[in-house]
């Protein structure tokens, strides 16, 4: 059971995430609907939506440096304030090119917020409680998304820049829980992602699964509201339908993950891809009413959002113990790249084939994933799963460590001699170890594995696991 001290330490970042997540949950929908109402094409809408995910990818690579330099609380205040400014500016300037730039900056700042919160929770507790902290993180994130979508109709009914004003105010208010807590924050450890080529060598299935998840999740957030609006739904009904999608992701992800713990994860990935294709076909060919569409979108959300954590779990089954953290961070970067490419790739399909082209694209992506996973299964069958599933949210590089537990390390160590595609044992370059001691010139970074501190104050910080701001 988690201590009261730990719960108190986790409360502030989780509350800040919940407040900011309410606005962030329906901002993408507002932007899509506003651009469509202004007569912009699906291609333009796709590129503006893609800017946010490009910002996410850039932030996943760069924002940890600012966090390490100024600390959790000040970093959170900086990133959340920047989110508020970019959103409010979108309410003042309605040009697509300006929204592209603002969404790019907003994505960079938003992933910084998630970096602060995820690294805070990661470092607050040990491996015995991280799973429960992550569960609270997921509940806060998805609950905020559902509530935000339900507020869409209310804010849009006010007209003008009201929606942007509400989202900006929520981003500003999210700073209060972080600023009002005692000035104590946990230590974090810096780690760099592996290169994409190295990741492909280690786990092709994990890379393709993460990339495909990014493609599909970004299309859900960016282009599904456009499809719903062009089918004649009102703004408040669109918000309700998007809330159903997020609710499906929240309720179905954990059962799917538990299922993957008990079966071959490659087989689970194949079935998820086939399931997404089947649901897409049902939307295209079944006679739809509001209830049928809501049920299909609920199932689609559960399938699409389950791809990433199962792919990460499969990769953890294959990875050498020393590469687990950096491999997971690299998969997050791959996921962000897929998210950035999704709107520009899918929106032309909607322009050529009509609004239903979105579900043709979903079906095609699911089919391609099934074909690839089947081929990989025939070439290199998966071992018995050794790393238990833990739900992962692809938001920042530090969040990758949330999925790495003692069971991951033990299981990967036991299977580190599994043959790769060529039949050889995966090798780790001894000359350049994946995980090593900190560079001597980075004394400002606090590492958990330092053997001893230089003075009594440093020793106290190391023993307690916190640093005082």
TrEMBL record:
Where are its TM segments located?
A: 44-63, 75-94, 100-122, 134-152, 164-181, 202-226, 238-256, 268-286, 292-311, 323-346, 358-375
Name any GO cellular component annotation: plasma membrane
Residue spans of biased composition, Basic and acidic residues class: 410-420, 458-469
Residue ranges for the region (Disordered) are 410-469
InterPro entries found in the cross-reference section = MFS (IPR011701), MFS_dom (IPR020846), MFS_trans_sf (IPR036259), MFS_YcaD-like (IPR047200)
Q: Does the keyword Metal-binding apply?
A: no
Give GO MF terms, alphabetically.
transmembrane transporter activity
Pfam families reported in the protein's UniProt record = MFS_1
Q: Does the keyword Cell membrane apply?
A: no
Keywords (alphabetical) are: Membrane, Transmembrane, Transmembrane helix
Domain Major facilitator superfamily (MFS) profile: start-end pairs: 9-379
Tell me the protein's name: Predicted arabinose efflux permease, MFS family
């Amino acid at each position: 059971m988690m201590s009261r001290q730990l719960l108190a330490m986790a409360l502030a970042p989780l509350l800040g995430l919940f407040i900011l997540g309410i606005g962030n949950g329906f901002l993408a929908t507002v932007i899509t609907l506003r651009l469509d109402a202004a007569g912009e094409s699906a291609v333009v809408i796709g590129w503006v939506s893609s800017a946010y995910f490009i910002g996410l990818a850039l932030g996943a690579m760069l924002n940890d440096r600012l966090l390490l330099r100024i600390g959790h609380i000040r970093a959170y205040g900086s990133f959340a304030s920047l989110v508020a400014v970019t959103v409010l500016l979108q309410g003042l300037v309605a040009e697509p090119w300006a929204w592209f730039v603002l969404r790019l900056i907003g994505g960079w700042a938003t992933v910084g917020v998630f970096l602060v919160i995820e690294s805070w929770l990661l470092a607050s507790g040990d491996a015995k409680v991280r799973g429960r902290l992550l569960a609270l993180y997921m509940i806060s994130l998805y609950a905020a998304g559902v509530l935000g979508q339900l507020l869409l109709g209310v804010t849009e009914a006010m007209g003008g820049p009201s929606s942007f004003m509400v989202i900006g105010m929520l981003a500003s208010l999210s700073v209060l829980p972080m600023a009002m807590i005692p000035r104590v924050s946990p230590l974090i450890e810096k780690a760099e992602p592996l290169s994409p080529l190295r990741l492909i060598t280690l786990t092709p299935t994990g890379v393709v699964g993460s990339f495909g998840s990014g493609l599909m999740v970004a299309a859900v957030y960016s282009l599904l509201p456009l499809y719903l609006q062009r089918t004649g739904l009102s703004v408040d009904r669109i918000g309700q339908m998007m809330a159903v999608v997020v609710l499906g992701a929240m309720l179905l992800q954990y059962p799917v993950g538990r299922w993957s713990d008990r079966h071959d994860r490659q087989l689970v990935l194949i079935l998820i891809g086939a399931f997404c294709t089947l649901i897409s076909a049902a939307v295209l060919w079944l006679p739809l009413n509001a209830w049928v569409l809501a049920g299909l979108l609920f199932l689609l959300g559960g399938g699409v959002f389950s791809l990433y954590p199962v792919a990460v779990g499969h990769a953890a089954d294959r990875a050498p113990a020393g590469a687990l953290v950096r491999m997971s961070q690299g998969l997050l970067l791959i996921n962000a790249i897929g998210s950035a490419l999704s709107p520009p790739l899918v929106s032309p399909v909607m322009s050529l084939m009509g609004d239903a082209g979105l579900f043709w694209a979903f079906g095609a992506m699911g089919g391609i994933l099934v074909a690839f996973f089947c081929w990989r299964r025939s070439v290199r069958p998966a071992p018995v799963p050794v790393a238990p599933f833990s739900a992962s949210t692809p938001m920042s590089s530090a969040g990758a460590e949330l999925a790495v537990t003692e069971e991951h390390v033990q299981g990967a160590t036991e299977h580190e001699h599994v043959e790769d595609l060529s039949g050889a044992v995966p090798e780790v370059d001894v000359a350049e170890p994946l995980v090593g001691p900190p560079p001597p010139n980075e004394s400002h970074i606090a590492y958990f594995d330092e053997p001893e501190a230089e003075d009594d104050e440093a020793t106290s910080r190391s023993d307690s696991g916190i640093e005082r701001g």
